[in-house]
Amino acid sequence: MEKDIYEQMTDRIMLTGSKLIPELFRMVVNTAEAELLMAMPGTPEQLAEKTGRPVDAVEASCRELYHKGMAFKSFKGGILGYRMCRDMLQFHDGTILWPEAPRAYHDLWQRFMEEEWPAYARLAPLVFPKPVTRVIPVGEAIDAGNQQVLDADSADRIIENAQALAVTRCTCRLIAHKCDNPVEVCLQVDNAARYTMDRGTGREITKQEALDILRMCEEKGLVHVTMNRSHAGHFICNCCSCCCQILPLVISEGLKLVDPSRYQAEIDAERCVGCGTCVDRCHFHAIQPAAESREGAEVMQVLAEKCMGCGLCQITCPEDAISLKAVRPADFIPA
């Protein structure tokens, strides 16, 4: 049987077979809007020619689809054009922040994340040679010593080097409601910031406000995650282990959906008093009592294969017994 327009859209974002994604598309766009999206990319004039519709009507529809998060602006050759969201992540983040999205829409997205997303996520490591995101360590946790701390290794430097900054609500916590962690903490950098401000889904912030958000998130035990590229920018998510679309599967199944930072936690056995604060702070179950403990104290140790190098354990260690050491080369982060 021939697929309907919403199933064709589902194929385009590489989620063939999903039962819920076509329903999500159906809640956002009508058939005419769906046909326009499938005709993209193009300028309004080109899309009008493809669809046989008046240019002014196409322009109005494109603006509405951009507002909904379904279409994105492009400026090839300096001329305004539009393209459809290219994958699940853009569809997810763009439309969940759609200002008029009803609660039923958010709830259906959460159904997808719980019922269908894990099966697709398990295929990702087979398709993509490297995860598209990576952890950034808490800056003050790094033992600079003889190490080179790259701009791409530091959330603070990404902020300090930014030309534009904005903050949006975390799309994962917005739909999941599984914890009481702050929601307006997703930092947008440069082009991503300009996009969200243009769309009206985020608010402009200063560098100091962005740094304050980082410190608050670190205090609450949220993990900094950014694009897995050596040039800094785009976004810094502050992720929890319950609502995030990625971290729960990393933790429960060990899926390679996000790269660790270039760093790894190390515990100084002479300083460690075995208080267990680091165990409570580690989302990845990467810290446990050592097989051989010092007399009078249950010394902790790091499980290298599980440590993501986030540094959240270090900043609350009362004995300053934890530091981050570089264990991966600079070219671990893709160019």
Provide an overview of this structure.
The protein is α+β, with helices and mostly antiparallel strands. It has three domains: 5-121, Orthogonal Bundle (Arc Repressor Mutant, subunit A), CATH 1.10.10.10; 128-253, no CATH class; 263-328, Alpha-Beta Plaits. It is 37% helix and 14% strand. The protein has helices at residues 5-12, 21-28, 31-39, 44-51, 55-68, 88-96, 103-115, 117-121, 124-127, 155-160, 171-176, 191-199, 207-219, 247-253, 277-281, and strands at 71-74, 81-84, 133-135, 165-168, 186-189, 203-204, 223-227, 234-239, 263-267, 287-289, 300-302, 322-326. Strands 3-7-8-5-4-6 form a six-stranded antiparallel beta sheet. A two-stranded antiparallel sheet has the order 1-2. A two-stranded antiparallel ribbon has the order 9-12. Strand 1 (71-74) and strand 2 (81-84) form a beta hairpin. Helix 1 packs across helix 2, helix 1 runs parallel beside helix 3 and helix 2 (21-28) packs antiparallel against helix 7. The chain is elongated and about 80 Å long. The two termini are 44 Å apart. The model has no long low-confidence stretch (mean pLDDT 93).
